Amino acid sequence: MNDSQLLRYSRHILLDEVGVEGQNKLLSSRVLVVGAGGLGSPVALYLGSAGVGHITVVDHDRVDTTNLQRQIAHTLSRVGQFKAESVKQAIADINPDVQVTAVTTRADDALLDELLLQTDLVLDCCDNFATRQAINRACVKHRKLLVSGAAIRFDGQVAVYDPRQQDSPCYACVFPPADVVEEAQCATMGVFAPLVGMVGTVQAAEALKLLCGIGRSLTGRLLMVDGRNMEWSEVRIPRNPACPVCGNSAGRPAT
Predict the structure, then answer these.
(1) Residues that are catalytic
(2) pLDDT digits over 159-179, tens only?
(3) How many structural domains does the chain have?
(4) Are 148 and 132 in contact (CB under 8 A)?
(5) Contact in structure between 9 and 99 (CB atoms under 8 Å)
């Protein structure tokens, strides 16, 4: 780190759990953020401000006026711009040293396979079930850490899936791909503005902890928040040996 970086990241460096070594880990990390909306906004801004060296943001959607109620990385002047490009600009305004790659195409299997080859950790900040399943398949295939978040109305959840650990579930263990899911869209269901900030901030915190090797992660735990009553709860989520993605039948060795 140079003198400017030592000053910029001094409050992290003062933490015994981070220090110079941890900050250097962040500076050399490569993170993929899928979704640049309500969750992706606080995730990207906190990862960028914390000095994660390279952030790839994937989102094929454009900024709309209705997004501005909660998607804090975007501004009125960037309505109509690709969300990924808008987030890239927002990070640059905070920390121009961070390399940001904006990908403005849909996150399908082929794209995820390509991007995960050069990624340390993935954050699922998208808003549809099919893409979440595709992200999970890619993370299991490439053995990449996945921090998953979701938010709708007043309810949110966060979990970490670590395919490097034999006892860690994957997203499909908890939400099977064969399940018939009725998509909950903000356009019809609504979402409490600060809720996406709460969930996205937890996602960012888990990502930074994992990259630095700090504390205990949410692996094997689903953290849920009821924003209406401001209550947090947690449930254990075991690995499903019969999971079609990570289970023994899918080629994963039994523990």
Answers:
(1) 186
(2) 999 999 999 999 999 999 987
(3) 1
(4) yes
(5) no
